[in-house]
Amino acid sequence: MFNNVGIVGVGLIGASIALEIKRNNLAQMVFGFDENQKSLELATKNGTIDGYSSIKDIGVCDFVVVATPVGSIVDVLKDVIPKLKDGAIVIDVGSVKGAVVDKIKPFLNDRVHFVPIHPIAGIEKFGVLSAKEGLFEGAYCIVTPYDGINKFTVSKIENFIKALGMRIEFMDAKEHDKVFAYISHLPHLIAYALVALIEEKDDEKFKFIGGGFRDFTRIAASSEKMWSDIFLLNKDKLLESIKEFEGSVEKIKLLIENNNTEELIKYLKQARIYKESLDER
Question: Residues 166-175: pLDDT tens digits?
Fold first, then answer.
């Protein structure tokens, strides 16, 4: 499918994509580019990538995956795009799309083709050693086209996404950010906040934490750098979701304060039934 692929940001997602490219023979060579020299050395040693180099050498690649934290994606794209050869394709895999598309569009040209995508396949672990084959199997991948995007390139990226085992959905970039503020960014924020609350208690009795707490807060073990970038880049949509969530918590709070058993059961049952319907989809 490609000759030389460049992975900029050899962390969980970038390294897992590299593994799938090699496993499915989608490229002749896979090169890594990362500020973390140790990550590059580890990725080369365990065969995740074929080698690594300075970003100034990225021009040898005809396909580039930008998998850095979202806060740096725009700067990386601005640096990478002028260095690429004519006809090269570059994608970013960040979980915030609107701000990236808006900021990078003025820097695009007809030489290099950019396609923004979001593979819904992350886990709470991070770093090159957390990468694994099969991470994307059966997962959704959101493609967020924009005015002027090259349709032939989009078609080629569709084939690439399918080769990784993912299912494709198309969505407007700003609509994407609104949706994921609620179903991804807000849950991570809540998990971090709950863990921080327990930490502040500094009470030995809280050692009796059980499975419910562990399951609910699993995602608070994710990279703080990645999630602080996401929270700030999708600030407006996330703040909207926080406000609505506060309203939901207030409803439950009032039902408890008023000992309104019937309405409390009704509220919780409605949520349970909807959760079950989500699990069945």
Answer: 999 999 999 9
